[in-house]
Amino acid sequence: MKKSLIVLLLSLVLITGLCGVFSVNESPSGHVYNPMYNQCEAYTSVPVPTHIIVDNTLFDPVINGTIIGNTGSINITVRDIAIFQYFIVKLNGTVILDYQINGYDVMITRNLSAGKYTISVLYSIMDPQYSGYTQACSIGFEVIGSDHYYQNQYANIFPITNNLSQHNAVRPALFVEGFNIFSSEGSSGFTYRLANKWKNELSDSKIYVLSLNNSMDDLRNNAMIVLGALRFVHNIQPTNQFIEGTSLFGYSMGGILARYALAFAEHWDIPHFTTQFISIDAPHRGASINENAQNLLDMVYTDLQDVGREDARLTAAIESLQSPAGKQLIRKNIYASNQSHPFASNDFREFFSEIDLGILQGYSPNGILINSNPLPDQTTRYRAGMPYKQNNIKCIAYSNGSLFRSGAPESIGNLAEYDFDIDLPPSHNDGNADWMEYDYQPGSVIDSLNIHEGGTGYQFDFYLNYSPVIVPTRSSLYLVPESVGGQGDPDQQFSFGVYEDIVNNGSTSIDEHLLNHSYFDKLFYPGQPQNTQWNWRHGELNKSWVATQVTSTANWLDLIENRTVCTVSGHVDDVNISSVTGKMYVNNQFIQNIPLSSTGDYSV
Q: Does any domain span residue 111?
């Protein structure tokens, strides 16, 4: 007769003790959270159109919605432009040729992935080879993968996909935007592209993108918004389906916001419902931007202001550097307080002292680290400033920086150069920025920036001759000198101020050595670029290694042991183990068979 072992798994609640000296309203450094997490975990569902209509194209152009839902194909109508014999309609700069004309309206059908787009309309009243085209309008909109999105006064949450896992379970994934020095409006557009890059590998997940209303605000405020969004995403899932823990993806600054939010939640025993934290090229030990280049950008910005001009990218860079987030993320920011400190500015140290032991010891030795109150049975898992308590959470660091530094930039010359000329009264100004040793340490680099502008009475040129590192690999992998795992001696190559290649100093493999000096559970990083003169870009999505690394990371996330919140083990006593079958049920739903060893042991 067959016998059965039935394991029923019900909801588990982790209880943690509270022993911090700061409060849920105020950070260890005395910053008052604004908002608090529970003020931003309620969102309103906002319906969106699925048909784009650009109206009043020639006089006062309007679009019927700046957020459009793609539930299949999107129909685009540009009204009245076909009144002209000569016209052009562009989508993100690409001329559309496969349109239809209905009266004076132009009709277009597209299947657009989630992201930001711009429709541009141009016309000419005569043959454009003689007169050129006149721009009628240029209007931006966002596409999401649903007929609605969620909104509150602090952020928007955009649904991207609506898939189920192989167990018919909801598996939420939330992407958090990063820091874009050339856009003071954040990098939500890039976050869409990032989510689209991952969505094929997350085909069993329900993906959302969090877009912050003020991405340049104090990092601690936006971390509370991330925590509120995490709780909201979990709470809106259907109650009649099994719900897995959320996978939280944080790109660049978003990785810091996510880490702070999760550690804060665990310190104060606030359920965050997250089982996987994926940090994507985030500067856990700070970002790096050449100080000489910062000063040169400031000079160019001032010169343009003096003649009443501005460049959008340059203005965005200055606003980003001057923002609270910019001062907290960048170790040496020329606009930060006490930026001449040999280690980092006061703004940087005040923030990171709340989540980094090394910085706390040098800044405020008597201060408190967030999540520094481990559970009684936790010893080697003691990771203050990181999440480690709830839901058996797994923390993954995905880096765009390799272990190798790029070729010395002295072969190229100055890092950046600048020329500025005014006609009346005649004047000339120029400058350059010397490279610094940390510009070519192992890490990911900023995009190139070349600006050539001219107008009535003036002209200026700005050249960035070399792409300097913005996120060092030692920072994105959160590598520290001490042995986090308690095995081996300190390794000073992970100290601040060391910029050489990262090498194996003692373990059987480089991966084991890095893990022994990282606060993360798993590390992913690319190989050395073939052109050793350049490092990989901070926002790299197109190189072949990116798809390989995304797949490898997703495969690791898919492993059942990296998705479970607990393990149930036991032993079956029976004279004939072969007659016993094991089955696992979750909330009365069959999940899988339970394999039994020859001695009757099992673990699920």
A: yes
Q: What is the mean pLDDT of residues 244-260?
A: 97
Residues 6 or more apart whose CB falls under 8 angstroms from that of 264 comprise 37, 223, 224, 227, 270, 370, 371
DSSP 70-129: -SS-EEEEE-SGGGSSEEEEEETTEEP-S-EEETTEEEEEE-PPSEEEEEEEEEESS-HH
Which CATH number do you get for residue 66? 2.60.40.10
| CB of 51 closer than 8 Å to CB of 77 | yes
State yes or no: pLDDT of 190 exceeds 70: yes
Determine the pLDDT at residue 27: 96
**Which residue range(s) make up the domain with 58?**
49-144
Determine, yes or no, domain membership for 135. yes
Residue 575's pLDDT band (boundaries 50, 70, 90)?
low
Return the C-alpha torsion angle 259, 265, 267, 268, nearest 10.
160
For residue 192, being part of any structural domain is answered with no
What's the domain count of the chain? Answer: 1
CA distance 135 to 121: 6
Is the whole model's pTM more than 0.70, yes or no? yes
Burial 358-390 (b: 16+ CB within 10 A, else e): bbbeebeeebbbbbbbbeeeeeeeebbbbbbbb
Q: Is the peptide bond before 425 cis (omega within 30 degrees of 0)?
A: yes
Check: CB of residue 101 under 8 Å from CB of residue 107: yes
Which of the residue ranges 154-168, 279-293, 328-342, 441-455 would you say has the lowest mean pLDDT? 441-455
Asked if the model's pLDDT at residue 72 lies above 80, the reply is no
Q: What is the pLDDT of residues 366-396, one digit of tens each?
A: 788 999 876 666 554 458 899 999 999 999 9
Q: Could you tell me the two tokens for 416?
A: 């950046």
